From TrEMBL:
Record carries keyword NAD: no
Record-stated family: Belongs to the PsbU family.
Membrane topology: Peripheral membrane protein
Name of protein: Photosystem II 12 kDa extrinsic protein
Organism: Isochrysis galbana
Length: 150
């Protein structure tokens, strides 16, 4: 009998009104009050998400075509495999080019590399195809051994 009285009291309009009044004192997003810590973590989480979306990054390297996909070669960023396509360059002259990079111009390239006579002749043959762009660390790190094996 007591259980029936408690159940009836729970569904009475007076009990509902007092429950609504007592809950309205705290910020509500669900059935019960939300702790300050939970609100704070949600605000910080959404702020971090919005901040990450606004970050700008370099999408593409402007000279990516010169890394072996065209007739022009960026000497400062191209890896050693690019020179395989050039008869007489690989492995000796190409190894010296890649090892001693970066260069400001062709004159500095000849000074730093100390090519032999045959290597100099091979490099001179293709010198018109070489450009010297700003070195990028993400390409320099793999210029000798890029992990591609036969």
């Amino acid at each position: 009998m007591f259980a029936v009285a408690v159940a009836a009291l729970a569904f009475s309009p007076v009990a509902l009104r007092t429950a609504v009044v007592s809950r309205s004192a705290a910020p509500m997003m669900s059935e019960g009050p939300i702790a300050r810590r939970e609100i704070f973590s949600k605000v910080l989480g959404s702020a971090a998400l919005l901040t990450a979306a606004a970050a700008s990054a370099e999408v593409d390297y402007a000279g990516v075509g010169y890394l072996g996909g065209s007739s022009t070669i960026d000497v400062n960023n191209a890896n050693i495999r690019v020179y395989i396509k050039l008869p007489g360059m690989y492995p000796n002259a190409a190894g010296k080019l890649v090892t001693n990079a970066p260069y400001k111009n062709a004159g500095e390239m000849y000074t730093k590399c100390k090519f032999s006579a045959s290597e100099t002749a091979a490099v001179k043959k293709y010198e018109s195809r070489f450009i010297f762009l700003e070195p990028k660390p993400e390409y320099i790190i793999d210029n000798i051994n890029n992990g591609l094996y036969r």
